[in-house]
Design brief:
The structure holds two protein chains of two kinds. By secondary structure, chain A is α/β, with parallel strands linked by helices. Chain A contains 22 helices and nine strands. In chain A, strand 5 and strand 6 form a beta hairpin. Chain B is globular and about 65 Å long. Classes of the chains: A alpha/beta, B alpha/beta.
Chain lengths: 452, 186
Amino acid sequence: MSHPSQAANFLKDEKRAHWHDETLWFVREKRDISSKGIPEWEELRKLASGIKDHVLTKLDYYLEELEKKATENGIKVHWAQNAEEHNKIVLSILEEKKCKAIVKSKSILTEECHLNPFLEKHGVEVVDTDLGERIVQFLNQPPSHIVLPAIHLKKGDISEIFHEKLNTEKGNEDPTYLTNAARIHLRDKFMKAKVAITGVNFAIPETGEFVVCTNEGNADMGVHLADVHIACMGIEKIIPKREHLGVFLRLLARSATGQSITNYNSHFRSPAPGKEIHLILVDNGRTKQLGREKFKNSLKCIRCGACMNTCPIYRRSGGYSYGSTVPGPIGSILSPGIDVKKYSTLPFASTLCGSCSDVCPVKINIHEQLYEWRQEITKAQGWSAKGMSMKLANGIFKSPLAYKVSGKILRATLKTLPNSIIYNPLNVWGKGRTVPEVPKESFKEWYQKNRS
Amino acid sequence: MSSKNLILSKIKNLAQKEKPIPEIPNFETPEDLPETFVKSVELNKSAVISSMELKDLVNSGAYPKVYSGSKLIEDLKTFPLPENPKDLNDLDLAIIDGQFGVAENAAIWLEDENLGLRAVPFITQHLVIVLEKSKILGNMHEAYVKIGSQFSGFGIFIAGPSKTADIEQSLVIGAHGAKSLKVVLV
């Protein structure tokens, strides 16, 4: 997995790449307008960050409290150390209910656990019900953005796949028409599903409830029509009390899409009469990340996607170039924690401009952690072309003669340097760049001629 | 060791020093709450109508199947609440009471007792929420103080009609849930 080569793939379609860049920037601008409408915005970010800091230092206590209160409320709580255990728990519930078809609303955790292929292998039909997720599911693709799963696609692509799967009119690209076709198609799935799966945005140990936020209402359509609701959450989703929801709900949608709040903010505390709620608490590497002093802050993430929309690299390379469940800046600090070898290029997919940290609603120092990961990865790899050239430069700058001679050589070679050296696969940096025009003489020579 | 104990022991073994939890201060709220609320409703692509306008709409026959659980306005229902929520699939209009609204974002709080069945505000084609003008709060912090510890198996902030922008970021109203939301202030 290499980010630069995947990004090059994305950039082949120049027009589309440009559209992607502009569209995400537009979302970023909506976030700016929305956040500036709140005078206490910066204070809210500080509060959210502080609340999460506190939770992470007492996570064991809060998890036990959550289990206790949720159980009292009639919710069945399960614990999973990893993706495999999580998937097995879900399957065992489905088998007990003799359920062969489920509806699922957006959950980055179930993507992380690769739940869909696991269930499909066991003969369960999984229907993703978020419109964007359903679109990418039809195409056998993962989401390319955690809030806007199909942002890499154009309406022409969607029209084509809907024509094939939902029998919509060929060539009809009207978003309202296409959305309505999906509405009819998914309503039928909602009416038939016995079990619905959702993610969790926030879980509250104080009350034993959890909160799920959507704009489409797909999570609620699923769970209120099904007999069984399975909610899957990473253990870091906890905030201590109900009153803290006020802080996070003010930040989440404004950061994600620029809305003042998501349309539907559902608080699940106990099952409706005759129904069941299961809550699965998943570790899957989170306790390990919590033990890494430099990186544990990444667990504060509330998955708003603001860092992706603002990132000059993400906007110009697309979600798939990261090859990880969570792409973009936050994904580039989470993924190496899971598999540092596989994701070794991700922390380098950044200009370290710091815009991600500036927009993060929970004030994660994303760009600093990217820099820290670079140190770790370079240490682990022990060699890099850039490292070698820095050593060479160090020698040249130490000796005046070496400096003078190498300047002459460089000016001579840059003029005649074959393109194959700049644009060869080993020189990733040369992609999309060219060498500068070379002056005939050095500054020193020019100065001696003109000013001395 | 069970998975629960393994996860908990991994966290305990880190022996982290507890960081204090910050206090949420009182933030300023808009002066004219109803006016700000109405503006927020419109920004969210909903509309505010009067109870007379609602009555006229229902009488016009535009919504053949109407369920109303509202105690705040005259009963307009043409359809009783079924036992199975799936029997609501052809419901045209649901009218329910909200407990209070929030001016900053037009979110309206509802609990089990307001909904009848939890599926009502989602499965209906169109939704009307009735709200007392005097029950509009400033921001989400005040909202959670108001909710306090009151118990409902299900509670929800609804802030608009079902929406999506998943196709090229074009806003479409009516993804899965209600295609329109109207708020009646009484």
